[in-house]
Amino acid sequence: MAHVFITGTTDGLGLAAARLLIEQGHTVTGHARNERRAEQLRERCPEMDTVLVADLSSRKQTVDLAEQANAGAPFDAVIHNAGIGYRERAKITTEDGHAHVLAVNVLAPYILTCLMRRPERLVYLSSGMHQGGRGDTRDLDWERRPWNGAQAYSDSKLYDATLAFAVARLWPDVLSNSLEPGWVPTKMGGPGAPDDITQAHITQAWLAVSEDPEAKVSGRYFYHRQEVPPSPAALDVGFQDDLLATLEELTSVPFPRS
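Above: the chain's sequence. Below: its structure in token form.
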């Protein structure tokens, strides 16, 4: 049985994936943005092994989260599930001066990937909207472009898939994949989302623990446990390297290539 860490488990797909993995007999460590939400999560899912607390919009708290995670037993898999949606009508700037969507959706999983002990498997949640993402590392923080919440989200999900594929290429001892759960009626997706909510959490859990040969791959992109083609930009090695260099510059956290 595996020990899995999932970010953003207080509700939605993160909580659903955690419950599924626990039902299957795995051990799950969850994550909440603050202590109030952590306590709510403990009440909703008392079978969860531990709940770690950090606001992923904060670089300091994200670094602290990596330290918390490293203080316990090693994880077999990490699911980078936490994310901000596309409905921010104006740019929100974090305490570190970054766009909120970029900080939570991209900088946080990058920092955790770099600083946590390397698991056997890494899973990064993307979105079908990543296909409309901008394959360009200039102005990731929206300092020169007029704000567009949907584009910022699409960009961030492209960066998540690109990060997954860069990790797969540079860390051959780790299975690193990305997926889209579908447009489902979660708090992020909204009540009118048309996809099947009962299927949306299954692929990330499957990639994290399954012994199926189809799940024990790396550098792939999935939808409902089926491999599908990602944006060509995410597969571009030059763009992957540019993104890693830019994320290192923005976070002051170097990517460990060896």
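Residues 149-170 form the longest helix (22 residues).
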